[in-house]
Write a structure and sequence with these properties.
- The structure is a single chain.
- This protein starts with a helix and ends in a 6-residue tail after the last strand.
- With about 270 residues, it is α+β, with helices and mostly antiparallel strands.
- The chain has helices spanning about 5-20, 40-45, 140-150, 155-160, 170-180, 190-210; strands at about 25-30, 50-55, 60-65, 70-75, 80, 95-100, 105-110, 115-120, 250-255, 260.
- The chain folds into 2 domains: about 5-120, MutM-like, N-terminal (N-terminal domain of MutM-like DNA repair proteins), CATH 3.20.190; about 140-260, Helicase, Ruva Protein, domain 3 (Orthogonal Bundle), CATH 1.10.8.
- The longest helix is centred in the C-terminal third of the chain and has 20 residues, at about 190-210.
- Strands 1-6-7-5 form a 4-stranded antiparallel β-sheet, with helices on one face. A 4-stranded antiparallel β-sheet has the order 2-3-4-8, covered by helices on one side. A two-stranded antiparallel ribbon has the order 9-10.
């Protein structure tokens, strides 16, 4: 599933090419992906409108098209491509956006788990926690969150009401680089550990954004290329391989129904 770095990569690349360009045609090839609006209304509200803004909130991609606000959740396999020939599965192109200058943008979703909404004003997302790359994310706030909760650290990172945008890949990486066991409880984390944890949350996510996200299965950038962050992962999907720090084999466990990768020596 695309996480914060992948969605941020998509937002930046769409913004760089399409901002302030007018949408002249919208084609909805799979209407069931639209969750609160009909295909006819979706097309009507966006055709003829300039793309004013493209942003991200957690794992959600937000557009402003004139006075309409489409929101995309990419599910497991959602991707945007500038050209049809860049699509890895063109038979699964579900949305098409055609712009006045002749450029195009296509939405592909092989598994069709993505969801699309259309709002009349910017959505607030009250269920989402703090943005980890924003100024609102501070060490003090993180410490308060850790003390308020009573859950394992892996679940804490993946709970979107705590910190928005982190999924399984980056939760594994953050905990490893913080030298914190995924099984530890939030209230057990010391002040020194919290400082390292805070730093690694930012560091891991910022690095992944610089590397255009992680392509492990379906994710591609808007330009049709793979992300590069998979070459920098330390533990994710590396069960049985030696820990890059101590050489102990990386172990895999199922925690909260998700695969969890960790070093039993570094992350006691």
């Amino acid at each position: 599933m695309p996480e914060l770095p992948e969605v941020e990569t998509i937002a930046r690349q769409i913004r760089a090419v399409f901002l302030e360009k007018t949408i002249v045609k919208v084609a909805v090839n799979t209407p069931r992906l639209l969750k609160n609006v009909s295909a006819t209304e979706f097309v009507r509200r966006l055709e003829g409108q300039p793309l004013r803004e493209v942003t991200r909130r957690g794992k959600f991609l937000l557009w402003q098209g004139g006075t309409a606000y489409p929101v995309f959740h990419l599910g497991m396999s959602g991707n945007f491509f500038r050209r049809r020939e860049q699509a890895t599965h063109p038979e699964h192109i579900h949305l098409e956006f055609h712009f006045a200058d002749g450029q195009t943008l296509f939405y592909q979703d092989v598994r069709k788990f993505g969801k699309i909404w259309l709002y009349e004003e910017p959505p607030k997302f009250p269920e989402l926690g703090v943005e980890p790359l924003s100024e609102n994310f501070s060490l003090n706030n993180l410490k308060k969150l850790l003390n308020l909760k009573n859950m394992n650290m892996k679940a804490f990172l993946m709970d979107q009401s705590n910190i928005a945008g982190i999924g399984n890949i980056y939760a594994n990486e953050i905990l490893f680089l913080s030298r914190i066991s995924p099984f530890r409880k939030t209230r057990e984390i010391t002040e020194k550990e919290a400082e390292v944890f805070f730093r690694e949350i930012r560091s891991v996510l910022e690095r992944a954004v610089r590397n255009f996200g992680t392509t492990y299965s379906d994710f591609r950038t808007v330009e049709g290329s793979d992300g590069q962050n998979q070459f920098f992962l330390q533990v994710y999907q590396k069960a049985g391989e030696p820990c890059p720090v101590c050489g102990t084999p990386i172990e895999k466990a199922v925690l909260n129904s998700r695969s969890t990768f960790y070093c039993p020596k570094c992350q006691r």
